[in-house]
Amino acid sequence: MKTLVISQREVARLLPMKECTELMAETLRTLSRGDAVLPLRTAMWLPDRSGLLGVMPAFLGKPRSMGLKAVSVMPGNHGTPYDSHQGAVLLFEADHGSLLAVIDGSSVTAIRTAAVRTLRRVRVWSRNRAHARLFAERESGRCGCFIEASESAREAVEGADLICTVTASREPVLQGDWIAPGAHVNAVGASFQGARELDTRAVARARLYVDRRESALHESGDFLIPREEGAIGDDHIVGEIGDVLLGKVPGRRSAEEITLFKSLGLGVEDVAAARLIYENALRTGAGTAVELGGQRDPGD
To answer: How far apart are CA 201 and CA 66, in angstroms?
Structure first.
């Protein structure tokens, strides 16, 4: 059987942001309809806790697909030529189990995670001021909006309509007192029980939505730590984003309400993205076909 190998450079072309944004919305609807299978992710820490290997399997009913993402997470790669998240998404067809594609995982993760709305002005902060300035200069030209580097995290978020936390921090970088009425927060960086980016007040003040309730109850330090402190209960989770998209759960109820989306990242998102990448690769002739097996020898 032929398997397509699709590189990091090719993924950026085969997974356009507009298509990916629409695809992620439909994927989350599919999950909330119950037309998906999504076990909790498995993580194997290295003995010195310097990094981990994570495995995220999933089945998606529409289009009928299955696969997994295997990804290494190495926080120490910051400042080196290596991504902190590296790996591959394996896409299988769901009738005979044939391996259809092996796709670079770093680029899939980056694009499907960042599927957000159009922006006019952006403020960024990093603990390394030079990195924030370089990012602002580079991305201002690429995305066509004004990006400025802020001196502090508080300065970056004060008065903001939309706040995204995308750090590797294990301790809060966003304080609840900094968040303006009517703001929406996307909490993306922390994905383990013992790590959080938001302090307890930030979570308690907000109307909380998650990508998947079961995952949040088992994996999200941003939720679990405030619950352990007694500040919130399980009912603080209003619902899944897919439920909002299906109209089962209401979204913002007033212009002053603070809303929070806690994103852990889901295997169904990777499988859906991989399916679209694979279909676009077949259509355009992208990728490299290799023979990996999968068919029985006729003599067996």
So the answer is: 39
Q: What is the CATH number of domain 2-113+267-291?
A: 3.30.1780.10
Where are the chain's structural domains? 2-113+267-291, 121-262
CA atoms of 121 and 30, how far apart (whole Å): 33
Strand partners for 88 = 70, 104
CB-based contacts of 94: which residues, under 8 Å, 6+ apart?
A: 59, 64, 65, 66
pLDDT per position as a tens digit, 81-126: 888 889 999 999 999 999 999 999 999 998 998 867 778 889 999 9
Q: Pairing mode, if any, of strands 64-73 and 52-61?
A: antiparallel
**pLDDT tens-digit map of 197-231:** 999 999 999 999 999 999 999 999 999 999 999 99
pTM, two decimal places: 0.89
Radius of gyration of the chain from its Cα atoms, rounded to whole angstroms: 20
- The pairing of beta strand 36-37 with beta strand 237-240: unpaired
Pick among 3.60.15.10, 3.40.50.150, 3.40.50.720, 3.30.70.100: CATH of 121-262? 3.40.50.720
Question: Around 9, how many Cα atoms within 13 Å sit in the side-chain half-sphere?
Answer: 3
Helix pair angle (267-284, 17-33), 10° resolution: 130
